[in-house]
Amino acid sequence: MILQSMKFKEFQDCKALLDMLDESEYVMKYKYVIEGKFEEMIEWFLQVKMGIYTRPVPVYMSNNKKVNLLELYMVVKREGGHRIVTSNNLWAMVSKDMGHNYEDGEYMRIVYAMYLDVIIYYYKFKTIPGNVRENQSRGVAENDDRAAEEGRRTRSTGCMPDDDR
């Protein structure tokens, strides 16, 4: 099986594993192998790519119960991602879905932020083709220019546009 022989030597290897996680049937079929590879990927990314050696993998709670990083990733992804889970205050539910207590929700949020958030951001950034990234940044610059121009007009005239009243 390709998955068992997978090694992490560059970020493309991480991307390949993260791409596999889109197939839920595949994840369920090879769950235990994927869990080990997922932790291996997180450890490689934190240590080799980011230079962070102070975050132990696997992750354990204060009661010595292991936090399954793959399950945490999958549950948060299913609920819409980190931002939605946080803004809707769903971390207690995430914790309960993983077999932990509701009170452990804040701990799950911290674990996600410390172990998964950066790699997911990096994955999304690296998977956007270069020309799309350029168009997006150009669009942001144009929006910033428009916002700055509108800000100058409202400050200089002392009037707010009709739709802001």
From TrEMBL:
PROSITE patterns: ARID (PS51011). Residues 141-153 have a biased composition (Basic and acidic residues). Residues 136-165 are annotated as: Disordered. It holds the Pfam family ARID. GO terms for molecular function: DNA binding. Residues 32-127 form the ARID domain. CDD domains: ARID. It comes from the Eukaryota. This is Transcription factor & chromatin remodeling ARID family. It comes from Helianthus annuus.
